[in-house]
Amino acid sequence: LSWATSCARPHPARAVSSGCRLVVTCNAQAAAPISIGQGTPVRPTSVLVVGATGTLGRQVVRRALDEGYDVRCLVRPRPAPADFLRDWGATVVNADLSKPETIPATLVGVHTVIDCATGRPEEPIRTVDWEGKVALIQCAKAMGIQKYVFYSIHNCDKHPEVPLMEIKYCTERFIQDTGLDYTIIRLCGFMQGLIGQYAVPILEEKSVWGTDAPTRIAYMDTQDVARLTFVALRNEKASKKLLTFAGPRAWTTQEVITLCERLAGQDANVTTVPVAVLRFTRQLTRFFQWTNDVADRLAFSEVLSSDTVFSAPMNETYQLLGVEAKDILTLEKYLQDYFSNILKKLKGLKAQSKQSDIYF
């Protein structure tokens, strides 16, 4: 494999994702699959999960193991090893998408790649989410991977001004252009992310940060996302399809905070940040090269100010996958279970901490 990325105007000899400003320059001869004759057949249950330690990735790993898959997890070398993945029964291999030479060995004997990875907050968005993914996809194609599952963002094709959303859309197009058998899943938002953002600060009586934007998001439980992913993986009708997974209802930030207040039984200390302030901060950080990555992540303020609804009708998807809508967890039930369990534990700790009078 040889590959590079460029923002220049596309050249006829280059492989380009149509409609995207990002351009991928490929050595077609090097990137083409090489026939090595009949080898050992790869079992359809052999799965590589990329980004296995993330919020979604760990649920994908758990679901795959529960359903009898042989799971291999691609994990970056790290000071704290991902021992919990091994404890669950998965195999862990060290590799780094920002170092393409480490990727091919992780794909040997793999039938399906499930790509949950995204860059760390301190990294440039392009490093993992674009350049690393291009290398991974090209390796998958060259090594004859049978299926590629990619998680994207709902409405990413409508917001090219947001770098991460543009990269997700371009990656979708790049996968489609390779000829791989794929399933692309666009997601709206995770319920798990609301715990640290709203639930915990309310319980600890700390400030809850929100915006005045009317954006609505149909949050979904990552366990439901993982379950539907494997239903789609076994369904031939989902082959080479772009699916959107959305929760039963779209919520505004204020509605989520109000729900948490009711379930916690206490008011939140809400600090509202106007979207205009986020937009101004983004413009300011774009003036300095060392803050460009911050500006890219603040680009979501453009989405927050556009009255966007991150939701989609799910009836056709449920019908395609043979899933009942009633089996999808609602945000009310998810947060209710969380607060009930936490409040019970807090009451238990409070009871244990009571001491009788002590006499000297």
Automatic annotation (TrEMBL):
Top-rank taxon: Eukaryota
Subcellular location as annotated: Plastid
GO biological-process terms attached to the record: photosynthesis
GO cellular component: photosystem II; plastid
Keywords associated with the record: Photosynthesis, Photosystem II, Plastid
InterPro entries to which the protein is assigned, alphabetical: HCF244-like, NAD(P)-bd_dom_sf, NmrA-like
Domain NmrA-like: 46-295
Name of the protein this chain belongs to: NmrA-like domain-containing protein
Lineage of the species this protein comes from: Eukaryota, Viridiplantae, Streptophyta, Embryophyta, Tracheophyta
